[in-house]
Amino acid sequence: MALPYVGQSQLLSQLLGEVIASYKPSSIALFGCAGGNGLERISSISVKRVVGIDINQQYLEHTAARYRDHIPRLDLFAGDLGVDQFVFDPVELIFAGLIFKYVETTKLLKQALSMLISGGRLVSVVQLPSPIEDVTPSPYTTLKSLSSVLHMVSPKNLTVLARETGFEIESERVVTATGGKTFQVDTFRA
Ligand SMILES: C[S@@+](CC[C@H](N)C(=O)[O-])C[C@H]1O[C@@H](n2cnc3c(N)ncnc32)[C@H](O)[C@@H]1O
């Protein structure tokens, strides 16, 4: 049986591949990009620019080592999405996989809106309540130190706040990872 974190990581990678295949953005940003999970899926598709943002510089170095020779333009920023400002040309799509639980929701939504072109998409993945341990074992061990700021994100609250921030709701669905955890996947239009 697959370990829960493996199923979760595979699911996030698969979802990123799906949204890129569906929306065909030429530029994307990954919020909480960690080691670049899912970027291996974009090599054969027409993404010309990838922006990765993470609070952990070491993760970004890992991402750079893995992908700098495979992506036409890879811009990596270390910083706190709840506090810092990041300056780069707006992107067509933002993938926010399991990052909302670390950052205050409205702050993250405003960050996203400021980084998207008009009509651009924010795809969020949030975990739904589960009896399985919330922070699964991770190859990125320092992630556990962030657990003090973890909070559960209510999908209903997220959609309400997204509307208030200026997004339109394009789609909502629930997916299940190998291992049994369930996740809400929302697409918001700027
Ligand atoms: C659960 S992992 C994300 C997994 C990844 N998105 C994926 O698709 O596999 C959460 C990531 O968010 C980063 N993170 C946590 N709080 C953050 C913050 N305030 N600003 C930026 N990155 C943050 C962590 O360092 C970690 O890499």
Would you give an account of this structure?
The protein has 190 residues and is of the alpha/beta class. The chain has one domain (4-189): Vaccinia Virus protein VP39 (Rossmann fold). Helices cover 28% and strands 28% of the residues. The protein contains 4 helices and 7 strands; from the N terminus they run αββαββαβαββ. The chain has helices at 4-23, 57-67, 105-115, 155-165; strands spanning 27-31, 49-54, 73-78, 91-97, 116-127, 168-176, 182-189. The protein has a 7-stranded mixed sheet, sandwiched between helices. A hairpin with a 5-residue loop joins β6 (168-176) and β7. α3 packs across α4. The longest helix has 20 residues, at 4-23. It is globular. The model has no long low-confidence stretch (mean pLDDT 89). Bound molecules: S-adenosylmethionine (SAM). S-adenosylmethionine binds next to α1 and β2.
Descriptive key words:
7-stranded mixed sheet; alpha/beta; single chain; globular; binds S-adenosylmethionine
